[in-house]
Amino acid sequence: MYVMSNFVQWFFDGLGTMLLGLFIGAGTVGSVWFVRSKSITKQTQKAGDNARQLQIGRDVRR
Predict the structure, then answer these.
(1) Of 10, 22, 29, 39, which has fewest CB within 10 angstroms of its CB?
(2) Cα distances (angstroms) measured from residue 23 to each of 1, 26, 30, 35, 62
(3) 41 — phi, psi (to 5°)?
C-alpha cells in the first residue's frame, strides 16, 4: 500500500509541475503573440469606395 501511495504522489507531483509549465508557457506565448501582432503595420485605404489604387513595392514582414 505504501509503495502505491508513493507512486501516486510522485505521479501527481509530476503532473502538477507539467500543467503549471504548460500554463506558464501558453501565457508567455500568448502575450508575445498579442504584442507582436499589435506592432505590425496596418494598411488603410485613403481613397473612397470603388476607387482604383496602385501598390508599389513589395510585402515586407520583419
Answers:
(1) 39
(2) 33, 5, 10, 18, 28
(3) -65, 135
DSSP letters spanning 19-49: HHHHHHHHHHHHHHHHHHHHHSPPP---S-T
**Cβ(53)–Cβ(47) below 8 Å:** yes
Residues 6+ apart with CB under 8 A from 47: 53
Whether 47 contacts 55, CB under 8 Å = no
Average pLDDT over residues 3-18: 78
Higher-confidence residue of 31 and 14: namely: 31
How many whole angstroms separate alpha carbon 16 and alpha carbon 23?
A: 11
Reply yes or no on whether the pLDDT at 40 is more than 60.
Answer: yes
